[in-house]
Amino acid sequence: MRYLPKLQQLRIFNEIVKHGSIHAAAKSMHLSQPALTYSMRELEQTLGAALMIRSHDGIVLTEAGQAFSEYSLYIIQELERATIDIISINNKVESTVSFGMSSLLAVTILSSVIKDFKKNNDTTKIIIKEAQLSTLLPCLREGMLEFAVGTISDNMLLNNYNVELLFDAPFSIVARKDHPLVKSTSLEQLKDAKWLFPETSMGYYNSLYNSSIIDFNKNKNKPIFSDSSVCILNMVIKDDYLTILSRARLAQPEFRDILVPLQIKELLPCAQYGLIYLRNHPLSLPAKKLIEIIQHHCKLYNWSPDDI
Q: Is-contact 270 153, C-beta < 8 A?
């Protein structure tokens, strides 16, 4: 049976990678340079591979070292996260979970999700940020959020993230019930319409706006963009603006008698919703539990209602 690396060896290796030299890492850890050198030799013997090339200017990771650096950092982070979780469980102290989501989840399953989560996690502080993924991804990278839910598209660069698909949702062009163009049956009839869209640089709305499905170059009114779903809905309800919303949103009681989907012959593509979190950043125990509940409710919910 092959021996496993020691935890202290992983800590030392991560510090050397972080600081770029054994000397700087030793100073940071208040240890002697020979002690770190000896520890690294032991680690390389255990793994059977050279992890770094040493020089007077510092260290350069080998191919094996680059691969191992990702694993070792993940192990340390996972252990730190596990320690925090266990301390929280044992001492019943308040833990925190923060996540981001699109507005569709806020008006559909969020209430049920939070209710189920709170049954066994009543001491957990929950922080929710509602926005498009173009806003949420930087928050994920900076550690402000643990995960996010939003629309996924082919042009999104998500190499550093884990992506779990949740559901597909059909979308429609939407207007208030007494809109002058409410009887329109083709996109050609909407060429003079006023439009409102969520402001985003990725995901469903961005792909739709840049596609040839609706040619906004032929429209005399340039679309308005907003990062506020409240602003968009308010202007659509009170003015002659059109927007594009999921049919699941239109099925909500507060919108059913106010907004209607236009019966346009050209079909809009469905939006694919996914759950996203950083690949090398361990999720906390509360986040894992919350994700399980979100996945459960996504499977149960009717995202394609016909009675609207």
A: no
